[in-house]
Amino acid sequence: MQTVTNFPRFIPSYKRLKENQNKVFTVEFYHHDVNSEPTFSTISLASDIFLEKIENEGTFITIRLTGLDLTFGEKNYNTNLSDDGVVFSSKHDDETYFLIHFS
């Protein structure tokens, strides 16, 4: 990843995900990354991506992959755009994040 832009809201990240919905998603989850390898990774098509706004809870993005749903809420995650993907990082732990790339 090269250029990273921070956004206070999930809308730009949601739009980037939707723009790339027909591509193959590579999702890597890093948690206390000691060996520079993801704790979990998957490669899949996204069957659905949706944005929900829930009163008193905030905005959520859900990515539905084959056999896996990922949901990110703005109270728990920051989101960033890069040249080649979307990043969700935990607001509670600076060593927990998801990298999502498209191909």
SS strand fraction? over 45%
Residue-averaged pLDDT: 88
Helix content: under 10%
| Lateral arrangement of strands in the main beta sheet | 1-6-7-8-2-3-4-5
Discrete helix count: 1
CATH class call: Mainly Beta
Number of domains: 1
- The CATH superfamily appears as Hypothetical protein YojF
Rounded to an integer in angstroms, the radius of gyration calculated over CA atoms is 13 Å
Shape: globular
The separation of the N and C termini measures 14 Å
User: How does CATH name the architecture?
Assistant: Distorted Sandwich
CATH fold naming: Protein Yojf, Chain: A
Tell me how many strands there are.
Answer: 8
The largest β sheet comes out as: 8 strands, antiparallel
Query: Element order, helices and strands?
Result: EHEEEEEEE
Class per helix and strand makeup: mainly beta
Describe the structure.
This protein has one domain (4-102): Protein Yojf, Chain: A, CATH 2.70.180.10. Strands 1-6-7-8-2-3-4-5 form an 8-stranded antiparallel beta sheet, covered by helices on one side. The chain has one helix spanning 11-19, and strands at 4-7, 24-31, 40-54, 58-65, 68-73, 77-82, 85-90, 96-102. The two termini are 14 Å apart. The protein is mainly beta and 103 residues long.
